[in-house]
Design a protein that fits this description.
Elements (H helix, E strand, L loop, with lengths): L1 E5 L13 H9 L2 E4 L6 H10 L3 E3 L7 H4 L5 E6 L2 E6 L8 H8 L5 E3 L7 E4 L5 E4 L13 E8 L2 E9 L5
Parallel strand pairs: 1-2, 2-3, 5-6, 6-8
Antiparallel strand pairs: 1-9, 4-5, 7-8, 9-10
Amino acid sequence: MKLLLISDTHLPARARELPPQVWAEVAAADVVVHAGDWVDVALLDELEARSKRLIGVYGNNDGPDLRARLPEIARAELDGVRLAVIHETGAKQGREQRCDAQFPDTDVLVFGHSHIPWDTVTPSGLRLLNPGSPTDRRRQPYCTYQTAVVREGALADVELHQLPRRG
C-alpha cells in the first residue's frame, strides 16, 4: 500500500496549485494523508475526487468550512499499521514524550504545522513524520513531501522528496 504524506499546502495563499509532481503522487498513492492547513476547501474537494482514499485533518489556518468536514485528529488502520494524523504537536523540545503520552495505541503519527520535515521514532516506538510543505518552504531549502509503503503490517520505504524551486 503506497502512501503520500503532505501538509501545509496553504492554497491559494502560498501557491496557486499543487505542483504537478505532487498530483502524480496522488494518482499513484493508495492513500493520501494531509496533515492540515489547506486554507481553501477547493483543494479538499479536488483531493477527494482524485485520491483513492484521503485521510485529512484541519489545521490552525483552516476556517469553519474545512473544520466542518475534517477532524482535529484522524485515525485509521492501514493493513495493520495504526495511523494517526494531527496538525500540531507543539514545540520540538519534548515532542517524542508528548506524542507517546497522547498516542499510546499508534504506530505512525503524521503531523504538520512547522513546514519542517521530521522523521524520528519515540522511546515507545511511535514513528513521527512531518512531510514539510509542497508549496511553502519557509526557512527550508526546498518544498517537500513524503512517500511511504505499508508492507506486511509495517511502515517501510519512508522517503522525503524535494520539489524543484519555483521560478
